[in-house]
Design goal:
The complex is a heterodimer of chains A (about 130) and B (about 400). Chain A is α+β, with helices and mostly antiparallel strands and about 130 residues long. Chain A contains 5 helices and 3 strands. In chain A, helix 2 (about 30-45) packs across helix 3. By secondary structure, chain B is α+β, with helices and mostly antiparallel strands. In chain B, the strands form 3 sheets. In chain B, strands 1-2-3-9-8 form a 5-stranded antiparallel β-sheet. Chain B has a 4-stranded antiparallel β-sheet with strand order 4-5-7-6. In chain B, strands 10-11-13-12 form a 4-stranded antiparallel β-sheet, covered by helices on one side. Classes of the chains: A alpha+beta (about 130), B alpha+beta (about 400). The interface of A and B includes residues 37, 41, 102 and 126 of A.
Chain lengths: ~130, ~400
């Protein structure tokens, strides 16, 4: 069924398209880690499931694609219906429904411009923390 | 617009333990970039059940105004201080209408999403003055000529959230004098820097052609309420975690706010004529610039920052005694187990390192959007931040390590 179709989107290409749109509108560009964090948060709130936009790619079903377009319009001030259609590179049939799980990149993902987006926060006990404990 | 002929004198500032207290409340300087990012982060939670970010942004200042009134502030005092602290010029039009022809939140806030009314803080401040519900009906962000606020007859139900006692620490070690501190050799004179910065006119002025805004170092500052920032930050953080947003994503948003603040404010300060007149001549090495900027930070009301270690381009460790985030957290919530909880300090210190060890602010780059996007905030060559000690978790100080 159509709503079970899952579309693969390269996040690097998505962020580049987002910023190209913003630049064309005379708006400031937004760095990838901030876009990824915002999208992750907004997806959790609107879609009731977390999608990790810090990975090289994300898999979104039809409903999630609609949510993405709404988020881009409302929170990033860009309409990207056409661009998202172009960005969709693969379609899979969904095998299972997940909620509140991280998606990992599939082996067939084409490599992006950069690897997993790294945030600034070092979570968890590092060697330094263990030294001072 | 012009100021009243009998303008009140400047508010009295009590400086203690790294805090700047006016009217019994800690005030901290923050720029329009930080204010914008923070407000944007709070508004991400729109649509959540049992959490209303617009009310949070509005109502979090109302109890603080009540506290000022309890200390004897009149309406005139409150209006003067609104301008003095850089929020703009607030005036009454009639019994039901107020406006701000100049405002920080209406003019200086950068919006990422669709333009929307943005003067929540002003609405809440006015609620505190009038003790009635106030709603913004027009905003300069949406190209209105002035921000306009309507007073409603609805009763106001806002409670004081500063419900826990937590005293500031008074025994703070002098620079470089605590046991674990690395031995530093620097000519940077922190006391001289602090005394000079305190002479700068970092307040809003509303007479003649002045704007009532604090436009300095390429940013627009506010001398804001520490408790307001803490309230809107932590309430939003808890709400996001409660619905399942991962810890890293949630904290990243708040840390980014501090990071962009550092780029613009620290970067602006370190590019200014004031810096080159006073601080740069004291600096022999690139790392002296870290000492110099920390001295400036120690005037902002954020607490007392003490550099513990500099391992060039590898590690930068700083303690913050009486960090406004740690103290503020303890005054609102039970003690936490989470050490990575002082988000602004994390973003700010990370940004400071990036200004010197990732890019080089001494080369006087243009601090524009392209530079921020392509170089300063580029993931390549970025450092990471962790917080090892937290006042919010019962430690004596906050402590941060920036490292690769």
């Amino acid at each position: 069924m159509a709503e079970n179709n899952v579309h693969l989107i390269n996040t690097s290409a998505l962020f580049t398209a987002l910023n190209t749109n913003r630049k064309n509108k005379g708006l400031t560009q937004i760095d990838s880690s901030l876009v990824a964090s915002k999208l992750g948060i907004l997806f959790t709130l609107k879609n009731k499931s977390y999608v990790n936009f810090k990975n090289e790619s994300v898999e979104l079903n039809e409903y999630q694609l609609t949510v993405l377009k709404e988020i881009l319009d409302q929170h990033f001030n860009v309409k990207m219906t056409h661009e998202i259609s172009i960005l969709i590179t693969q379609q899979h049939h969904e095998k299972r429904v997940s909620t509140l799980h991280h998606f990992t990149a599939s082996a067939s993902v084409q490599s992006s411009l950069f690897g997993k987006i790294k945030g600034f926060l070092k979570i968890g006990r590092s060697n330094i923390q263990e030294r001072i404990a | 617009m012009s100021a009243s002929p009998d303008t009140p004198p400047h508010p009295q500032v009590t400086r203690t333990g790294g805090h700047n207290i006016i009217g019994g409340l800690n005030r901290i300087y923050h720029c329009n970039y930080y204010n914008a990012y923070l407000q944007m982060t709070v508004l991400l939670t729109e649509g959540m059940i049992d959490h209303e970010p617009e009310c949070l942004l509005t109502d979090s200042v109302t109890p603080l105004v009540y506290l000022l009134k309890q200390r004897g502030y009149s309406t005139k005092d409150l209006l003067f201080e609104f301008s003095y602290c850089g929020f703009g010029f607030l005036r009454k039009i009639d019994e039901k209408t107020w406006e701000t022809p100049r405002s920080h939140y209406g003019e200086a806030i950068c919006i990422q999403g669709k333009p929307h009314r943005s003067c929540y803080f002003t609405s809440g401040y006015l609620q505190g003055i009038l003790e009635k519900t106030v709603e913004e009906i027009a905003c300069k962000v949406m190209d209105a000529p002035v921000d306009k606020f309507v007073v409603q007859d609805k009763p106001l139900n806002v409670e004081n959230y500063l419900t826990r006692k937590f005293e500031l620490q008074t025994t703070i070690p002098e620079r470089f004098t605590f046991d674990e501190c690395q031995t530093f050799s620097t000519r940077v004179d922190e006391e001289k820097i602090i005394n000079n910065v305190r002479q700068l006119p970092l307040y809003g002025q509303c007479h003649s052609d002045e704007t009532c805004l604090i436009e300095v170092f390429g940013v627009v500052l506010t001398n804001h309420f520490a408790d307001y920032y803490n309230r809107i930050s932590y309430e939003t953080y808890f709400a996001l975690r409660e619905v399942g947003v991962p810890e890293e994503d949630t904290k990243e948003m708040f840390i980014q706010a501090g990071h962009v603040c550092a780029f613009n404010t620290y970067g602006g300060i370190m590019s200014s004529s004031e810096w080159y007149d006073l601080v740069a001549p004291m600096c022999e090495t690139r790392e002296d610039w870290l000492h110099g900027m920390i001295a400036v930070v120690n005037t902002l009301g954020w607490g007392v920052y003490r550099i513990e270690k500099i391992d060039v381009e590898k590690e930068f460790t700083v303690r913050v005694y009486n960090s406004y985030e740690g103290v503020g957290y303890q005054r609102m919530y039970p003690q936490t187990n989470d050490k990575n909880i002082s988000f602004l300090a994390m973003g700010g210190l990370l940004g400071l390192v990036h200004l010197l060890w990732k890019v080089d602010i001494r080369k006087k780059p243009q601090l524009n959007e392209d530079f921020y996007f392509n170089q300063f905030n580029n993931p390549e060559n970025s450092y990471s931040i962790e917080q090892t000690h937290a006042i919010a978790a019962g430690d004596e100080y906050d402590r941060f390590i920036v490292s690769k």
